[in-house]
Batch of 2 targets.
Target 1
Amino acid sequence: MTDTRQKLIEATAEGLRTDGIAGLSARSVAARAEVNQALVFYHFGTMPELIQAATRAAVDENVIYYREQFAQIGSLRELLEVGRELHDREHTTGNIAVMAQLLAGAQQDLLLAEAGRYAMARWGEQIEAVVRRLMADSPLAGVVDPAGLASMISAVFIGLELYDGVDPVGSRAALDAVERLVVLVDVVDDLGPVASRALRSRLKKASAAR
Amino acid sequence: MTDTRQKLIEATAEGLRTDGIAGLSARSVAARAEVNQALVFYHFGTMPELIQAATRAAVDENVIYYREQFAQIGSLRELLEVGRELHDREHTTGNIAVMAQLLAGAQQDLLLAEAGRYAMARWGEQIEAVVRRLMADSPLAGVVDPAGLASMISAVFIGLELYDGVDPVGSRAALDAVERLVVLVDVVDDLGPVASRALRSRLKKASAAR
DNA sequence: GTCTATACACCGATAGAC
DNA sequence: GTCTATCGGTGTATAGAC
């Protein structure tokens, strides 16, 4: 990969982070990359294509970073810990902000939608694997849909990032609130086999009733 | 309120919905409102101020619409029902999309951040009241922070809206997944007093350990 | 691959006639 | 309150010299 391409890709992610999708332009990206503005179009054709390339590179890099950590998660408690670490870290690096701005722009642009779908799929498959593993021998095994839950977790990260931008205190409280609710799942998980079987039948009934 | 002001306010919400924050401009809004472009600045001064006025009006109107429905929610099951209805309805009307685009822009603009904070506060206080009421006589009363949970629910709506734009199937699965998890809370809620007391002590221990 | 120069549309915002 | 006209600047994108 040429130096200029790389510089443009990095400047684009940085631009999404700090200027947002509304403030991103070929001019601003080129200036940030200290590269001639015309090179944006020489290398990437159009702005959406550059954004696609940049966000794709960002998500590929970031997902790799967490692959090992994800593989070592063995309990819900650990998942929460890694989740909070990931949230804090990705929030300060701005990677979630990039994803949020991408998704905001994706609502009106087909190419950005494709890029957003790719990003969510990459994160989703990582998260899903962890959830699936953790749920395998839990009384919740039949109740939880790992793929759906993974999508929800991704959506929560995006939503919380945007929420944090307008109300950081509230976003902290929101994180704490789910953590405490997840403890509930943990408690259920730790129930004895009798209680666990009773719970399972109740859950079956409850799902059927819906 | 003059006719022109009203037209501009409505056109702004519509523009956020269909063009996104990145595609919104004084010219596009004025065209949509079939109003002279200079009137945007005569009536509102700057674009962010117009966006603030428009999103404020939108959230005020929409919150009122749900106030009655929220007041009638008496169980978690009903909360889920209203929640799904609200999500479906607000998603099709595009009101959540407006909020999502507002928050995306709010990350880079102080005035929009203020508008976003206002919107999240209005929704938050409504949701919090419901959560607080439902949790009052539940074994989870001490475990759940109503305000935090309300913030989380708001964030989920925003995140899910953006997620839906790139992967509608995944967003459906995500919604289904939490619904099934909430059933878990419902089951715990329906436990007898003995089991409930046992659970409460377990939860206390679990929270303390954190 | 990189540069300058440029086309042309659009941007927010203002001045001033009506 | 509304209009036209206009400012300076920025947007994407391209042509053509180097």
Note: The mean pLDDT of chain B is 90.
Target 2
Amino acid sequence: MSPADLSAGLDYVRLHVALERLFRLLRRDTQPSGLSLTAASTLRNLELNGPRRLTDLATDESVTQPAMTQLVSRLERDGLAERTTDPTDGRVVLVRVTPAGIALMQRRRAIRAQHLAGLLSTLNEEDERLIAAALPALERLGGVTGGIA
Amino acid sequence: MSPADLSAGLDYVRLHVALERLFRLLRRDTQPSGLSLTAASTLRNLELNGPRRLTDLATDESVTQPAMTQLVSRLERDGLAERTTDPTDGRVVLVRVTPAGIALMQRRRAIRAQHLAGLLSTLNEEDERLIAAALPALERLGGVTGGIA
DNA sequence: TATTGTTATACTCTATAACTATA
DNA sequence: TATAGTTATAGAGTATAACAATA
């Protein structure tokens, strides 16, 4: 009934709805770690790329500079990140993740992977195989404008 | 390097990270419609199921009753939903979506599907085919505990 | 007394506008 | 003057606790 079936038979509305439902499921698990999506993404950014300017973080995460200022202040208050200075430019604030921040991210990933495993255990082998096969494609899909990259 | 490769060769951490990145990408597009994920999900719920009690909506969407009270107030203020009464029980508030709410959801789905199509156009045919093949499995994955259940 | 919903209060997260400090 | 960051203010969205109305 829809003209959305295109080149590869992919219905975008269906994919969008399916992804959104998964998002909501995963988001519900956000509570345990207490990290918002942006907070988690920022910590991951710092894990991967090392100390980073506040302005760059704001750009990477698609939030405004004031929003990032506040997020970093909360992370700092909670001991998950630290502000340092740039010796070569007095205006710059460099942000880095702390060991506690890294530990929290590790726990978070483990917990959410476990939850995802629980969800997947309700699927049959074939479905799981299909998702595994599509995973690299999904990674590329998210990576394109994913920011950070 | 990880013991996460299990039955079907599916790495849960990788899947979780990939979904989370996609999540952030789609969320960035939330602005155009101005609807939060919960607001959109609630309107969709009302579209599918018809008028619904405020308490049931709170349960469906996994938020507290006061949070749903406020969300419905915002939706009502914006003309997207309406409160009505239940003739058989004076305590009950029934919420229903308005034509404007339905129209907004239709626009939102079209816009986001279009954006998804744009993202997918950067992938090659094979990747798109793999995602199309996995879509029903992803739908089942999201549907399993989608909710409510 | 139990259920349904609202109000009060507080915190996160976001934005825009105005400001400070450094270059 | 331009750049980096903060502060001020406002609003969405969430939670818990206390309350009001109806059953």
Note: Chain B touches chain A through 61 residues (CB under 8 Å).
